[in-house]
Design goal:
Layout lengths: L5 E4 L3 H12 L7 E4 L3 H11 L2 E2 L3 H7 L2 E4 L6 H15 L2 E4 L6 H8 L4 E6 L9 E7 L5 H12 L2 E5 L5 H10 L1 H18 L4 H21 L4 H7 L6 H11 L2 H23 L4
Parallel strand pairs: 1-2, 1-4, 2-3, 4-5, 5-6, 7-8
Antiparallel strand pairs: 6-7
């Protein structure tokens, strides 16, 4: 990312992770500004990461070329209307990581003609292993797209979607996705304990197996279906386990779960963007 001034409105976990990732990538902490209504949280971030504390959101917008809205979705309308005049005056790129807030609603609250990138990161971004979907509105330049991508790439993988509505699908797959894997890991732990394994041992086995499977899938040139086939020997133990999962409708159940998450994401976006 160019050596611009970068501002974060909100000093929560995701903002801290993004800032930490950027600094690890070589972005100078003195070029990063942060504001938050929680003074203790703001002081914690500035002291720990060595970034600049803004006296308020308006000062931050007036100072920085890229603004990251890292507040809760329920707070974003109030924040957007508060900084609207400064945004219209200084014309920064606005990157929103607030789940469910549509670009058209955010642009309306900011006063129109604003360059907005909407991003959907997930919680593994907290350890620089995230996956983020991004979409840019028509006001975003090529250079600003690169800036937004560099920002989110500091905490993991980034992908662009052509239509904003596809971010609801990104939410269903990767935004909510970690919880699906945690549920599977939880079930495997319980089953392992019931089979006689010590809880501490089974947890280590499950966690390392999940990590290894993900790493293998990332590095392999084949897809997960073929990977599954290669570890499923005819007449073996894996074949027996997979047969039980398939007989129980596992694939269909996952499909219905993601569809429910996708539908709820769209519903929440509509609710959060309702006009007063």
């Amino acid at each position: 990312m160019d050596r611009i001034k970068l501002g974060f409105i909100g000093a929560g976990n995701m903002a801290s992770s993004l800032i930490g990732g950027l600094i690890a990538d070589g972005f100078p902490p003195q070029a990063i500004w942060v504001s938050d209504i929680d003074e203790s949280k703001l002081n914690s971030v500035t002291n720990r990461l060595g970034v600049q504390a803004a006296s308020g959101n308006q000062e931050l917008v007036a100072t920085c070329e890229v603004i990251v809205l890292a507040v809760k979705p329920q707070q974003i309308r109030e924040v957007a209307t508060q900084i609207a005049a400064e945004v219209r005056k200084h014309k920064p790129l606005v990157v929103s990581i607030a789940a469910g807030i549509r670009e058209e609603d955010l642009e309306r609250w900011l006063g129109g003609q604003v360059a907005i990138v909407r991003a959907m990161p997930n919680t593994p971004a907290l350890i620089q292993a995230g996956a983020s979907g991004l979409h840019a509105n028509p006001n975003v330049s090529f250079k600003q797209r690169e800036q937004a991508e560099s920002l989110l790439r500091a905490v993991g993988l980034t992908v662009w979607v052509q239509e904003e509505t596809l971010l609801d699908a990104v939410t269903a797959v990767s935004g909510s996705g970690p919880a699906y894997f945690f549920l599977l890991m939880e079930a495997m732990e319980k089953a392992g304990i019931s089979l006689g394994l010590d809880p501490a041992i089974v947890r280590l086995l499950v966690e390392q197996t999940a990590l290894g499977a993900a790493k293998l899938a990332l590095e392999a040139e084949i897809g997960p279906e073929e990977l599954r086939r290669r570890v499923t020997s005819p007449g073996g133990t894996t074949e027996q386990a997979i047969a039980v999962l398939q007989q129980g409708g596992f694939v269909d159940l996952i499909g219905r779960a993601l569809e429910a998450a996708w539908r709820r994401s769209a519903e929440l976006s509509a609710q959060l963007g309702e006009k007063e």
